[in-house]
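Suppose a colleague, Dr. K., hands you the sequence of a protein chain of 402 amino acids and asks what its three-dimensional shape might be. Before reaching for any lab equipment, you can write down a predicted structure in token form. Begin with the sequence itself:
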Amino acid sequence: MSQRSAVCAASQHLSSRPLWRAVGLAALALLSSAPTTSAHVRWFVPSPARPIDPADVFSGVTILTFVAIGATLALAWVAARLAVRWRLNARARALALPLLRRFAVDLPRPADMYPWIPAVLALHTAVLLFVRGVERQLFVPNLALPYTLPAGMLALGEIVVAFSLVGGIAVGALMRPAALGLALIGLFGMVYFGPLLIIEHLYLFGIAGFLFIAGRGPSAIERVVRGAGRPHVPLLPYAVPILRGSFGLATMITGFTEKLWNRDLALAFLRDHPFNVTAATPFPLSDAQFVIGAGLAEVTLGALILVGLWPRAAALAAWVPFNLAVPFLGAQDVIGHLPIYGILLTILLCGSGRAFAATLRRETEPRHHRVLPTPAALSAPSYGVAASSRPRPRIRVREVVR
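The predicted structure, expressed as tokens, is then:
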């Protein structure tokens, strides 16, 4: 049986089964196909001329995928509503904190790390850009640049942006130009390689938007140079959603274009990297079924991250496959996923991003005057009025605070 006939048979088999079996297949694939789910197949297998296969697009698997996405999002929404109603977050915190204190585990507050998140994300991205620029590749190994002057200028642009991101960690005035440079390189890449192969890495545009909005974050140098590199306060509420949404959408696109809508490519990857470990489980899957299950898992996980339901739990779930693939795929996989590691860390710490925006706004707002009561006002008689309800006299003493 040829590869195409095997894939079609798997598609018919899946489409003829009830939905709960397909959902079970996706759950099994998420656990057993972790390296395959996280792997960008095009990095390790020569890509065919067509980025996607129309025969795979117009198949029952596509319908099954959207049904699975809808069911997953509905269950996640119901679970989120129940968690709010039953105050599960507060109860879990009340159970976990005493246990951590008992074992002398002192965890820092996420708010204490918020000002450093842009620097960590910029450093992860800078390493990727520098390595790819030196190797004359645009972001990823499968986008190799030819030995021409325009391609060389594009690779040089990656190196310049990488150094600007590193420099922006110390001098925040460089961070926004570096973010704009990253977005421009991506746009030039769309002209050079076509939109689809760049959109698969849409999270790099999300990183550019996040760094442009957040800047370097509050630091001593920015205060000396009159606020250069500080966050753009009106846009701060959108920084984390842009980053999270771009990564979730890129994950969904990759699940479609490298697995569900290009299954021959994924099967070729499995021949060189035998990640199908389901043969050792009570529910063995063929390679074709394994590819479909891995694609379902990747797309549904990306949808959860995109809409922002359970963002921290989804980030933790995504962290597992991206780390399990490292021993099997080597340094190329690590370097290519460095920005994704930074994104997952940001989502894990920031969640929806509201607390992140409030913290950076508070850290970067200018000095303000806070009215403090005088000792005379505190000792003024109440004249029969309760101390908690009597009006305070007008305060004349002010103290400058940050």
